[in-house]
Amino acid sequence: MPAFSITAHKAQGKTLDACVVNFTGCRGSESPYVMVSRATSLEGLVILTPFPKDKICCRQNEDLRLEFRRLRFHALRTIEKYGTRQEAARASGEIQAEFNGGPTGGEPEAVDTTATGKGSQR
């Protein structure tokens, strides 16, 4: 039976009928996801070693957290502008509490995830 090995990055975008994965040394949740999602079925997937649940259930990456923060800010600004007086007052209070009083303060920065996919700050 022919066999070869590739990294999770090299496997990205490929479809494999059978694959054996090893989570040892993986960081974040992206690599394990890429590794197991290459298999076309559970029957074609073998996980080489046991792993702790936190290996696949971990905190979102920084770019995703920043993007959700940016979207939350703009949702509140929209409510502030177009909502009822009561909704606008509540949105203003949340903006003040979450964005002006937080560790970074002010409007959250936008994250560019286009083309390179590296999530650089704009």
Shape: elongated
Report the strand count. 4
The percent range for strand residues is 5-15%
Figure out the total of helices. Answer: 4
Organism: Mycena metata
Biased composition (Polar residues): 113-122
Protein name: UvrD-like helicase C-terminal domain-containing protein
Region (Disordered): 90-122
Keywords:
single chain; 122 residues; mainly alpha; 2 domains; two-stranded parallel sheet; two-stranded antiparallel ribbon; 4 helices; 8% strand; UvrD-like helicase C-terminal domain-containing protein
Verbal overview:
This protein has 122 residues and is mainly alpha-helical. The chain has two domains: 8-55, no CATH class; 62-112. The chain is 40% helix and 8% strand. It is built from four helices and four strands. It has helices at 8-11, 30-37, 62-82, 85-100; strands at residues 19-21, 45-47, 111-112, 120-121. The strands form two sheets. It has a two-stranded parallel sheet with strand order 1-2. It has a two-stranded antiparallel sheet with strand order 3-4. The longest helix is centred in the middle third of the chain and has 21 residues, at 62-82. The chain is elongated and about 70 Å long. The model has no long low-confidence stretch (mean pLDDT 79). Residues 90-122 are annotated as: Disordered.
Quick summary:
40% of the residues lie in helices and 8% in strands.
Q: Helices and strands in order, then pairings?
A:
Layout: H1 8-11, E1 19-21, H2 30-37, E2 45-47, H3 62-82, H4 85-100, E3 111-112, E4 120-121
Parallel strand pairs: 1-2
Antiparallel strand pairs: 3-4
